[in-house]
Amino acid sequence: MKYTTNTTIDALARELRGAHRVLVTTHQKPDGDAMGSVLATVRACAAVGVHAEGWVVDPCEGNLRAFEGSTPVTHVRPRQPALPVGDFDLAVVVDTGAWTQLEVIAPWLVERVERVVGIDHHARGDLVAARRIVDVSCGSCTALIVGLVDAMGVDLAFGADANGRYSIAEALFMGLATDTGWFRFSNARAPEYALGARLLTAGVDKNAMYQQLEQSSRAERVMLQGRALSSMEIIGGRIALMRLRASDFVETGALIEETSGVVNIPMEISAVRAAVLVVEDMAAGITKLSFRSKPADAHGNFIDVNELAARFGGGGHVHAAGAKQTGTVDEVIELLRVSLAHLA
Fold first, then answer.
1. What are the pLDDT digits (tens) for 194-230?
2. N or C end of the chain: smaller count of CB under 10 Å?
3. What are the b/e assignments for 314-337, b being 16+ CB within 10 Å?
4. 3-class SS at 56?
5. How far is CA 330 from CA 151, 239, 309, 340, in A?
6. How far is it, in rounded angstroms, from Cα 313 to Cα 161?
7. Which CATH architecture has domain 219-341?
C-alpha cells in the first residue's frame, strides 16, 4: 500500500462544511505542529458553523496548551483513556497516518474508517483514513492545512481576541515555526517563508509566541537536558547518542513531555551529522527514540533517519523521525549500536 493522496483539498473542504459534528485528533504526545494542526482545523470548522472538537492523548507540554484558549480540546491519559463519546459525522487525523502513533484511539477510528480523513506531510503511514491528503513537500502539517482553510473560505484571522490571540493564523504559525526550527531547518524553503509572512500579516505576534514556546521552560527541564548531555557519546565521530532513564526524571523533577527538543542539542557540534535520544517512559511502559540529522554536506551525503527509525517500527521525515520499543533502555541502546555502526 502506497501512502499517498487519494482525494483533493477541495473535496475535504466540502466534507467539513457539510458535517454537523467533527472530531480532530493527532499523534500521542503532540508537538507544536500536531497541536497547531488540531487547533487550526477545529477553529476553521467553527468559522463555518460546524461543531468540532480536538481529542489529544497526553503528555502535552503546557506551553502548547497555553494556545488553546477556548478552543474545545479533550486531553486524555494514555493508560487511562476515555474514547470520544457521541456520534461524529467526520474524524480528521492530522500530522500522522501511523497506527503506532494512534494506538489509544485506533479502535474508535477502525469502527468509523469511512468517516475518517487524513491530512499529513510524513512519508510513511497506514490505512488510517479512507480519504487523505499527503504532501511531504510541506515544511509542516499546518502548511498543508492552510490550503484546507482557504478552500473552506475562512479568514485566517478568525477567532482572534482583542490581543490577537487564538486565531487560526496563530495555530498555523505555531506548527510552521516549530517544525521548521523557527525557519532554521532544511524544510524551511521559499514557500514556508512566504506562508510565515502571510500569517504575520494576519496578526500573529511572533515574538510573544517565541517567548511562550521557547523561553518558558521550567528549571527542571533544563536540568534534564544536562542529564541527557552528560550521557552523550559520539559514535564513529559523527553520530551523537544520548539516553534518559526513569531515574533522571525522578531526580530532576522533570516531566516526560519536557524532552521535546533535547535531541537537537548535539547538532550544534560541527562533526555531528545525526543525533539519537533514547528515553525510558515508565508511565507508558515503553522506550522512545528520537532521531535527527543534518541536511546533505558539500558532497551530498546525509543520514536518512526516517529509514533508520523504520528499523524500529517508526518513521517521520528524512531529517526528523521517531520510534518506540518495548525493550529496556539498555536493550534498545544495544540494538541501536548495531544499526549505527553501519552508518558511523
1. 999 999 999 999 999 999 999 999 999 999 999 999 9
2. N
3. bbbbbbbbbbbbeeebeebbebbe
4. strand
5. 49, 18, 17, 15
6. 42
7. Roll (3.10)
Residue range(s) of every CATH 3.90.1640.10 domain in the chain: 9-214
CA distance 260 to 245: 15
Give the single-character DSSP code of 260: T
pTM over 0.90: no
Domain 9-214 annotated CATH 3.90.1640.10? yes
Q: Tell me whether strands 21-25 and 90-94 are parallel, antiparallel or unpaired.
A: parallel
* Helix boundaries (H) for the chain: 9-18, 32-47, 62-65, 106-110, 141-151, 168-179, 190-201, 206-214, 219-230, 246-252, 305-310, 329-341
Walk across the sheet containing 274-281 and list its strands: 233-235, 239-244, 274-281, 286-293, 320-325, 315-316
Euclidean distance between CA atoms 270 and 132, whole angstroms: 39
Query: What span, in angstroms and rounded, lies between the C-alpha atoms of 16 and 23?
Result: 11
pLDDT in tens, 36-61: 999 999 999 999 999 999 999 998 98
CB atoms within 10 A of CB 201: 11
Under DSSP, is residue 332 helix (H, G, I), strand (E, B) or coil?
Answer: helix
User: Which regions of the chain carry the CATH code 3.10.310.30?
Assistant: 219-341
C-alpha cell at 175: 506548527
Using omega within 30 degrees of 0 as the cis cutoff, is the peptide bond preceding 59 cis? yes
Please check whether residue 30 is in contact with residue 158, taking contact to mean a CB–CB distance below 8 angstroms: no
